[in-house]
């Protein structure tokens, strides 16, 4: 079974998210979407191009919990349900839910350092 296929997104906290978004846009050329983040495409022009999400959250967000870090990495996977089951069998700290949205399936695991990791299976 394949596990991680690539990076799906990078998320981090900021004291002033809007100001930081504007700094990244102005100085690094990150093109912001209406929702405040960016979509960065890879393999453009290919049959199945990939993309990564870049997003800044408020410093008091609970979305990264139980992790304590100011960031969270989202990894793209092919079969989330199968991977979550394997991780549980391997003794990993896996959250007991899979969220299904129009953006795909999401699951979470916590690494040995206490960082929350998001696993993402894009929609087909």
Radius of gyration: 15 Å
Structural class: alpha+beta
- Percent helix range: 10-25%
Number of strands: 8
Largest sheet: 8 strands, mixed
Q: Distance between the terminal alpha carbons, to the nearest Å? A: 18 Å
- CATH topology name: 2,3-Dihydroxybiphenyl 1,2-Dioxygenase, domain 1
Could you name the CATH class?
Answer: Alpha Beta
**pLDDT under 50 segments (min length 5)?**
none
What percent strand? 35-45%
Number of DSSP helices? 2
Mean pLDDT level:
91
Topology pattern, helix = H, strand = E? EHEEEHEEEE
**Domain unit count:** 1
In one word, what is the shape? Answer: globular
CATH-level-2 architecture: Roll
**CATH H level, superfamily name:** 2,3-Dihydroxybiphenyl 1,2-Dioxygenase, domain 1
Summary keywords:
124 residues, alpha+beta, 2,3-Dihydroxybiphenyl 1,2-Dioxygenase, domain 1, eight-stranded mixed sheet, 2 helices
What can you see in these coordinates?
The chain is of the alpha+beta class and 124 residues long. It has a single domain, classed as 2,3-Dihydroxybiphenyl 1,2-Dioxygenase, domain 1 (Roll), CATH 3.10.180.10. Helix content is 18%, strand content 40%. It has two helices and eight strands. Strands 1, 2, 3, 4, 5, 6, 7 and 8 form an eight-stranded mixed β-sheet that branches. Strand 2 and strand 3 form a beta hairpin. The radius of gyration is 15 Å and the shape is globular. It starts with a strand and ends with a strand. The model has no long low-confidence stretch (mean pLDDT 91).
């Amino acid at each position: 079974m394949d596990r991680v296929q690539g990076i799906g997104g990078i998320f981090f906290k900021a004291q002033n998210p809007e100001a930081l978004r504007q700094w990244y846009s102005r100085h690094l050329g990150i093109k912001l979407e209406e929702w405040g983040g960016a979509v960065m495409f890879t393999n453009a022009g290919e049959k199945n191009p990939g993309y990564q999400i870049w997003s800044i959250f408020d410093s008091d967000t609970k979305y990264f919990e139980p992790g304590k870090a100011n960031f969270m990495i989202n990894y793209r996977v092919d079969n989330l349900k199968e991977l979550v089951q394997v991780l549980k069998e391997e003794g990993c700290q896996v959250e007991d839910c899979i969220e299904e949205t129009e953006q795909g399936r999401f699951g979470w695991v916590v690494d040995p350092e206490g960082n929350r990791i998001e696993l993402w299976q894009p929609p087909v």
